[in-house]
């Protein structure tokens, strides 16, 4: 049997073989091939990428989730799949965690499940995994994410990430074209788009809770500059730190679409394409993670739960299964210039430390649950 690759070697392979959402076939194959050399029980899916691996048996069941997809973005003038959100590191860290827990299997009891989830970047994979039942019997769920240097310094860790809610809408303005010399014969879709943008800047909600709405794409007109376009398509990106404010923001945006449609007497249709919920975490899971951070890197490197306006579909697991106790490990790694930047870099030395923290979090969780069960039986 050949020796296992190092954590860095796994990262390098995954980094140089990125695959976009729902196309993570080779990524799944690579992970499965590594797990063939372990005692883990592996489940793959006939209808798509991703896999689940398990060590141990019985309750309690503690799960760790790693997202596996890359982004599609322009890098050095070429469009390509690119790991600029850290999912390559997440996979490598979780694989290293699996290897370490396998070596320690004689000192713990219960089940540890490793969820390698596709399609996080398009906010679909977690919901699909929930429907497949992969967390039905899970008691605790831990996630992880690299954090930009603006949030955590290298070597700092936090026991939770307060992600905000995100909602992605696509709109269509449906009118008719007109001759450039006869602007009275139609409604300029570009003018309508400008009105939408202007009115959205007038949305005012509770200033103590971060929120934003912005147009992220707008397509109207063609190659003929003497045609006034009557149609357009556009995309909206909505963000809010809480699920409640996201609902308020959506109502305001929909009211603006209705008002502009009436003003210009032009149909405007808005469709929800995808969304991510704001974080819902368990205080108990956070306590286990915080204790593990302090045990591995000390008190000085342990920070409070961080708040970020970014989103993650990880939180659908707890929303769809409210009794699931979950949190995410925030990893300070000198990440710059920022998440989703095509040239994102980070300090690789933190990866084994993050794995050590996850190992300890699992052992803390299983140990406390088993001790509690033993006490109850006695």
From TrEMBL:
Keywords on record: Hydrolase, Manganese, Metal-binding
Cofactors demanded by this protein: Mn(2+)
GO terms, molecular function: hydrolase activity; metal ion binding
Entry keyword Metal-binding: yes
Family annotation (Gene3D superfamilies): 3.30.70.360, Zn peptidases
Peptidase M20 dimerisation domain location: 172-260
Note on how the cofactor is bound: The Mn(2+) ion enhances activity.
Alphabetized InterPro entries for the sequence: AmhX-like, Amidohydrolase, Bact_exopeptidase_dim_dom, Peptidase_M20, Peptidase_M20_dimer
Residues that, per the record, bind Mn(2+): 85, 87, 121, 145, 340
NCBIfam families to which the protein is assigned, alphabetical: amidohydrolases
Protein name (record): Hydrolase YxeP
Organism: Halobacillus karajensis
């Amino acid at each position: 049997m050949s020796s296992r690759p190092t954590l860095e070697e796994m990262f390098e392979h995954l980094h140089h073989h990125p695959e976009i959402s729902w196309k993570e076939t080779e990524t799944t194959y690579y992970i499965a091939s590594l797990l063939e050399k372990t005692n883990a029980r592996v489940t793959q899916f006939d209808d798509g990428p991703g896999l689940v691996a398990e060590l141990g048996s019985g309750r309690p069941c503690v799960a760790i989730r790693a997202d596996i997809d890359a982004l599609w973005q322009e890098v050095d003038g070429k469009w390509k799949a690119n790991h600029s959100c850290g999912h390559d590191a997440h996979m490598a860290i979780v694989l290293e965690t699996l290897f370490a827990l396998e070596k320690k299997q004689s000192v713990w009891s219960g089940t540890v499940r490793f969820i390698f989830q596709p399609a996080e970047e398009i906010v679909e994979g977690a919901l699909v995994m929930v429907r497949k039942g992969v967390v039905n019997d899970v008691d605790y769920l831990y996630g992880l994410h690299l954090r930009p240097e603006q949030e955590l310094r290298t070597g700092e860790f936090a026991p939770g990430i307060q992600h905000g809610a995100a909602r992605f809408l696509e709109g269509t303005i449906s009118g008719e074209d007109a001759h450039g010399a006869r602007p009275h014969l139609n409604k300029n879709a570009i003018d309508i788009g400008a009105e939408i943008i202007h009115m959205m800047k007038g949305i005012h909600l509770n200033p103590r809770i971060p929120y934003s709405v912005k147009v992220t794409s707008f397509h109207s007109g063609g190659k003929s500059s003497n045609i006034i376009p009557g149609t357009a398509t556009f995309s909206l990106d909505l963000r809010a730190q809480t699920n409640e404010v996201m609902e308020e923001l959506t109502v305001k945006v929909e009211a603006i679409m209705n008002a502009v449609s009436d003003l210009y007497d032009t149909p405007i249709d808005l469709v929800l394409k995808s969304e991510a919920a704001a974080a819902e975490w368990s205080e108990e899971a956070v306590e286990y993670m915080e204790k593990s951070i302090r045990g591995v890197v000390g008190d000085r490197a342990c920070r409070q739960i961080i708040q970020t306006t970014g989103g993650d579909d990880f939180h659908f697991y707890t929303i769809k299964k409210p009794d699931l106790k979950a949190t995410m490990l925030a990893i300070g790694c000198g990440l710059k210039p920022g998440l989703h930047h095509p040239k994102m870099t980070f300090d690789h030395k933190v990866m084994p430390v993050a794995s050590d923290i996850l190992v300890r979090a699992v052992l803390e969780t299983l140990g406390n649950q088993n001790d509690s069960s033993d006490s109850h039986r006695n």
